[in-house]
Design goal:
Elements: H1 7-22, H2 26-36, H3 48-58, E1 65-69, H4 77-84, E2 87-92, H5 95-107, E3 114-118, E4 131-137, H6 146-156, E5 157-170, H7 176-185, H8 196-202, E6 205-212, H9 214-230, H10 232-239, H11 241-259, E7 263-272
Parallel strand pairs: 1-2, 1-4, 2-3, 4-5
Antiparallel strand pairs: 5-7, 6-7
Helix pairs in contact: 1-5, 2-9, 3-4, 9-11, 10-11
This protein binds S-adenosylmethionine.
Length: 273
């Protein structure tokens, strides 16, 4: 299946495929439990507490149809479906992530309420008004066509639906040197043509709630550094010494960048205008 992606987006997709297979290794699950309180193979910074908050904010019930965009291996979509007994459609591009997600859904006894679709979030294959709720966790900083994702989301949600998502951005008003340092430590497509409030407004979304999650992002990254240090030997066995050292160096550098105020991680809750 062909998707409209740039070379750099394709390269990122390939990297995610490798990452998702590894998330199932026991040591990775141990680290994930410590960092985010879950073990679904998560690849965003969404913690269990934040997933619980999403459930409240999205006002989901057993009859709700949720779509989780950039669903990875099913975090937090499957957890949300399990907790509030709703149905969820998981959308992502790497097949391996969705395969892992469906296996987990089956293990959790949720096979009848969890479905998946390999699809581009910027070109969604669903008809107008198909869903009650949309979630995505740090998806928009992993792709270039942010406006198209928000437009497509607006098209497929019901008029009384709710969308809640987290996203990481470069902190506003940085001068060139800190800005460039932010980019080195950031998710690949963190740069946005416009700030998210403007993008949401221009794509037909009214922001009903907003939270700054940067402090929690810093704390999670701090736990990630500590967990990687404590699991050094197991990580070296899984990834090799060089890769596990590079990984730790990247977490440390990212943590310092967050502490230096180079990023913001935000939660937006919005409804169709
Ligand atoms: C930060 S990860 C989040 C994964 C998962 N939801 C989690 O919280 O762990 C972002 C996900 O977005 C997916 N993604 C990136 N571009 C996409 C696109 N154009 N359409 C659908 N998914 C995309 C990536 O493959 C990746 O799985």
């Amino acid at each position: 299946m062909a998707f409209c992606c740039t070379e750099s987006e394709l390269a990122l997709r390939k990297r995610f495929e490798g990452v998702y297979e590894r998330t199932q290794a026991p040591i990775m699950q141990t680290i994930e439990r410590r960092v985010c309180g879950c073990d679904f193979g998560g690849n965003s910074w969404t913690s269990k507490d934040q997933a619980d908050a999403l459930i409240r904010l999205l006002r989901l019930g057993p009859d709700s149809d949720l779509i989780d965009l950039g669903a990875g291996t099913g975090w937090p979509g499957i957890y949300i479906a399990k907790t509030c007994s709703c149905s969820v459609t998981l959308v992502d591009l790497p097949k391996i992530g969705l395969q892992i997600a469906l296996k987990r859904a089956e293990e959790e006894g949720l096979a009848d309420r969890v479905s998946s679709r390999i699809a581009d979030a910027a070109d969604l294959p669903f008809s107008e008004g198909s869903f009650d709720a949309i979630s995505h966790s740090d998806l928009l900083c992993c792709l270039i066509r942010k406006r198209a994702v928000l437009q497509q989301s607006r098209r497929i949600i019901r008029n009384d639906g709710i969308m809640a998502f987290t996203v990481i951005s470069v902190a506003p008003d940085l001068s060139k040197i800190p800005y460039d340092r932010a980019l080195v430590n950031a998710p690949e497509f963190i740069e946005s043509e416009e700030n998210y409030r403007v993008l949401l407004d221009e794509t037909g979304w009214a922001v009903t709630e907003w939270q700054d999650l940067t402090g929690e992002y810093r704390d999670s990254c701090d736990r990630q550094v500590s967990a990687d240090i404590e699991s050094r030997e197991e990580l070296a066995e899984l990834l090799g010494t060089v890769e596990s050292n590079v990984r730790l160096a990247k977490w440390r550098s990212k943590l310092q960048a967050i502490k230096d105020g180079l990023f913001v991680r935000e939660l937006f809750v919005c409804q169709p205008m």
